[in-house]
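Structure first, sequence second, as always.
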């Protein structure tokens, strides 16, 4: 996984480096459309997918360059047995926690494993890909460099939502290819605010308000209409049937969103309440 995009040769070149050193290795491309240097997006994308991947070597290259240069590279072995070859910026921390936590970690500092004369602008090609390939053919992680204290590794701390009486404060975690808006809240957290499946809800974002139903799927509303439902990871999302919620609500990743009860007149209909408790 990387932020290299698919409109250039970067991804293919990394494949080539791996093929040189580990020609029998099977390489799965997870995603190369991470926003440039967006470590948080990469971390959330990885943790949502890594549980469905085979045990192996997870190469993730999303870095942020600052005045001090790049962060160090690391190899992390998880309790599940997989290896992460990544920069030490937290990009894989959610992923390795999902796989049982860190068993051991090493700094990638042995230049004999890199390409000759590595550049400062393509470490995926020059450092990470050759190291990952050599690990795939049996190199010990201890050979990449000195052992590190797992407690010193950088981790990402995703922000959670906040339930406040009859509404939930959260944010957009990701915007997918279809324009759906995944939020950092779950159905149980909505229920804690009194919002049940089948209810109308009020979505507030950037001084705008929009009313929509809380449904199983966006297919339950008419084309062009929005709905609050669950995505494939059972996170709450806003979707528009045959449309793009990101454009309708004019939202992007990181924007604040509040989901609230719609004021009711009288008691809740018994059929709706029963359906929401299933």
């Amino acid at each position: 996984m990387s932020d290299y995009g698919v409109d250039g040769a970067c991804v293919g070149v990394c494949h080539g480096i791996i093929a040189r050193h580990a020609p029998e290795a099977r390489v799965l491309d997870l995603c190369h459309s991470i926003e440039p240097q967006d470590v948080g997006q990469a971390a959330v994308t990885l943790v949502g997918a890594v549980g469905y991947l085979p045990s192996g070597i997870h190469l993730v290259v999303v870095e942020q360059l600052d005045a001090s240069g790049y962060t160090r590279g690391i190899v992390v072995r998880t309790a599940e047995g997989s290896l992460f070859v990544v920069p030490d910026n937290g990009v894989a921390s959610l992923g390795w926690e999902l796989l049982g936590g860190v068993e051991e970690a090493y700094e990638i500092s042995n230049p004999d494993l890199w390409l000759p004369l590595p550049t400062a602008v393509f470490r995926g090609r020059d450092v990470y890909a050759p190291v990952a390939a050599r690990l795939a053919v049996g190199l010990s992680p201890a050979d990449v460099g000195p052992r590190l204290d797992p407690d010193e590794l950088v981790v990402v701390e995703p922000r959670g939502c906040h339930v406040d009486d009859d509404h939930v404060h959260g944010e957009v975690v990701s915007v997918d290819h279809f324009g759906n808006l995944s939020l950092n809240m779950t159905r149980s957290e909505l229920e804690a605010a009194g919002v049940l499946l089948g209810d109308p809800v009020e979505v507030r974002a950037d001084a705008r308000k929009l009313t929509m139903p809380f449904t199983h799927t966006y297919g339950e509303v008419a084309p062009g209409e929005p709905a609050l439902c669950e995505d494939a990871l059972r996170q709450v999302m806003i979707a528009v049937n045959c449309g793009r919620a990101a454009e309708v609500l004019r939202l992007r990743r990181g924007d604040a969103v509040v989901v609230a009860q719609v004021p009711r007149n009288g008691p809740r209909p018994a059929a709706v309440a029963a359906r929401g408790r299933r």
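Margin note: The chain is about 20% helix and 25% strand.
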